[in-house]
Amino acid sequence: MKMQIFHVENLQKGWIKIREELGENAIILSIKENNGKFEILAASPEKKEHPDKNRNYLSRYKNIVSSEEEVERYHPVLEIISNLKKGAIPKKLEKDILGEIQKIYSKVVENLRNIDFYEKIEQNPLKKKYVTVLGNISSGKSTTIAKLGAILKFNKGRKIAIASFDFYKIGGSESLKKFSEIMQIPFFLIKNDKDLILYKDAFDEFDHILFDTPGNIKQLTEVERIVSFITNSSQSENILTIPLTRKENIIEKDMNYFSKFNIDHLILTKYDEIENLLPVFFIISNWNYKISYITDGMDVPKDIKEAKEIIPELQEVYR
Q: How is domain 118-318 classified at the architecture level of CATH?
């Protein structure tokens, strides 16, 4: 992954510069304000392994893996092992490591065979008055909200507004505010429960309010309390964004924490950045949440697909 720091006068210019230098699939890792200017840390996605390297792995570890498909599946471990000095790890241990991974993978596959993928699809999302979107830092939450706003306004013809609680860090709501201005969607910044009460009458004019929540909400007691109040409402549809690039243990922690907000369904983000489908299968096989959308890029409003467009194809992999 190539990382680069950009110093720009505003976020819009920064985003243009990032895409020019790092490509269409670049991601923003952090934003800091310094003397009226922005310092943006961005990165380009990792490239897939070259087929020649796969064949080298296949030749070297033929006692462990039997196909290029398996090499793709286990390549992070193979990469670590191959970079060790010769003789630093016994051959038997190499085999044991891959054997354990194969057991875990086989268990996931077995679970998937007993799951009807169609039951994992949220067929009718974005139906309630309030749509509260949650997710950890760098989960693609703000961009996803912009895409949902475009779907509701342009595809469904709904009158909508976006309200953000994400004012605690510099630039937290700036990109979403910019998207709102471009799409001519009213934007509200909520700093406390008084603001929520103040805007209540204004919210009544809209078909939907999309609530943006901060990624570090667990550290913000007051905001957590207000969001808990909203997500407990029968009028609120609560969506959790899960980036497929996160490690399994981080995904599990996020699932455990955000479940307190009565999650209705998931949106899987960064589908374009994964090298195999194992992260998707990990989520499908371990949690009962349905999936409404899958995002596969940074382009608003294009890079978002309904889960029913993708998930049925995944089931065919293990049938």
A: 3-Layer(aba) Sandwich (3.40)
